[in-house]
C-alpha cells in the first residue's frame, strides 16, 4: 500500500499546480474535470529565473483562505481579474496603461506566469499580482464575494471535440460563481475565435440569471477597443479566424435571481 499511496499523492499533486511547489493536494480529494492539461517542463531559463526572483513580490500562493485584496495590493482601487492569462500580455499592457487599477492574473502554466512577472518587474509595476492555480478553486476559496470590478476571459481553450466539451472553462457553474464575485455594475468580457465555442458562451451566459448581455440577448458585442491584441489573437486573425466578443453586466437584483435559481 505505501507505494500506491505515494503514487496517488504524486498524481494529485501534479494535477493542481502551485508555482512555489509548496502546495500538496489531499490524496483523497475527488478529481474534478479540468479545463486545461499541464505540460510539465516547457519553461525557459528566463521564466524560471523570474519565478525564483520575483514570486515574492508578484505571486500569491493558492490557499483555502479568503484574500484581503486591499492588503494584497496595499490600497483600495478598481480590481480586474484576468482568467487564463496565457503569457500575460493583456494584464501587462493594461496594468501599464492604467496605474489606477489593480490587475490579478490567473494562469495554470508556470511559463506564462514567469513571463508575466518578468515583464512586470522590468516595468516596475506595483498594480499586478498573479496566482498559478485552477481558477475555479481560486474563485471558491480565495476571492471574496462582490470584490471584482471587471473579469476578462480572452480566448479560453476551445476543446473542439464533442467528447471534450465538458472540459470547457465557461460553464453555468463558473459563470454563476463569477456573478457572486463581481461587484454591482461590474462587467464580464469574453472573446473567442472558435464559432462553436462562441455559440456555447452565448447560450451559457445569456441563461445565467443575474447577467445582462450588454449587446442584447442573443447578440455578440463589438470588439472592445481597449482590448489589447495578443499574439494568440493575431495568429488566429492571420489564419482567417473570425473573433466573437461578449460583454455582460450584473442585473441590479442578481442576488435575488441567483437565490431563486438555487431554490428551484
Ligand atoms: C488559449 S490560451 C489564451 C491565453 C490568453 N488569454 C490570450 O488571449 O493570449 C487559454 C489559457 O487559459 C488557461 N487556463 C485554462 N483553464 C484554466 C483554469 N481552470 N485556470 C486557470 N487558467 C486556465 C490555459 O492554461 C491557457 O493558458
How would you describe this structure to a colleague?
This protein has a seven-stranded mixed β-sheet, sandwiched between helices. Strand 1 (79-83), helix 4 and strand 2 (102-106) form a beta-alpha-beta unit. The N and C termini lie far apart (45 Å). The protein has one domain (41-263): Rossmann fold (3-Layer(aba) Sandwich). The model is unreliable at 1-18 and 20-28 (pLDDT under 50). The protein has helices at residues 2-15, 45-58, 69-73, 89-97, 110-122, 135-141, 172-181, 195-207, 231-238, 254-263, and strands spanning 79-83, 102-106, 128-131, 148-154, 182-192, 211-213, 244-250. It has ten helices and seven strands. Bound molecules: S-adenosylmethionine.
Could you give the order of strands across the largest sheet? 3-2-1-4-5-7-6
What hetero molecules are in the model? S-adenosylmethionine
Number of helices: 10
**Gyration radius, to the nearest Å?**
18 Å
Number of domains: 1
Mean pLDDT: 88
CATH architecture title = 3-Layer(aba) Sandwich
Report the CATH C-level class: Alpha Beta
Helix-strand makeup class = alpha/beta
Helix content: 25-40%
Annotation, overall tally of beta strands = 7
The main pleated sheet reads as: 7 strands, mixed
What would the CATH topology be?
A: Rossmann fold
Portion in strands: 15-25%
CATH superfamily: Vaccinia Virus protein VP39
Shape: globular
Distance between the termini: 45 Å
- The ordered string of helix (H) and strand (E) elements is HHHEHEHEHEHEHEHEH
Amino acid at each position: 500500500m505505501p507505494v500506491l499511496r505515494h503514487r496517488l499523492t504524486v498524481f494529485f499533486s501534479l494535477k493542481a499546480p502551485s508555482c512555489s511547489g509548496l502546495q500538496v493536494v489531499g490524496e483523497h480529494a475527488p478529481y474534478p474535470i479540468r479545463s486545461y492539461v499541464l505540460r510539465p517542463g516547457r519553461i525557459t531559463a528566463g521564466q524560471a529565473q523570474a519565478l525564483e526572483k520575483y514570486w515574492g513580490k508578484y505571486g500569491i500562493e493558492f490557499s483555502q483562505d479568503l484574500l484581503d485584496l486591499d492588503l494584497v495590493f496595499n490600497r483600495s482601487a478598481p480590481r480586474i481579474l484576468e482568467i487564463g492569462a496565457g503569457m500575460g500580455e493583456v494584464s501587462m499592457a493594461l496594468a501599464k496603461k492604467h496605474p489606477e487599477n489593480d490587475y490579478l492574473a490567473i494562469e495554470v502554466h508556470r511559463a506564462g506566469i514567469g513571463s508575466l512577472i518578468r515583464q512586470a518587474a522590468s516595468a516596475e509595476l506595483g498594480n499586478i499580482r498573479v496566482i498559478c492555480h485552477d481558477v475555479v478553486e481560486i474563485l471558491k476559496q480565495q476571492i471574496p464575494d462582490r470584490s471584482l470590478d471587471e473579469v476578462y476571459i480572452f480566448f479560453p481553450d476551445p476543446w473542439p471535440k464533442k467528447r471534450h466539451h465538458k472540459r470547457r472553462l465557461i460553464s453555468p457553474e463558473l459563470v454563476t460563481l463569477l456573478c457572486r464575485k463581481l461587484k454591482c455594475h461590474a462587467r464580464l468580457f469574453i472573446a473567442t475565435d472558435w464559432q462553436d465555442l462562441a455559440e456555447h458562451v452565448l447560450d451559457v451566459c445569456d441563461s445565467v440569471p443575474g447577467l445582462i448581455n450588454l449587446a442584447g440577448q442573443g447578440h455578440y458585442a463589438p470588439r472592445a477597443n481597449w482590448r489589447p491584441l495578443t499574439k494568440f489573437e493575431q495568429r488566429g486573425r492571420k489564419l482567417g479566424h473570425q473573433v466573437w466578443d461578449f460583454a455582460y453586466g450584473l442585473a441590479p437584483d442578481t442576488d435575488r435571481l441567483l437565490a431563486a435559481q438555487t431554490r428551484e
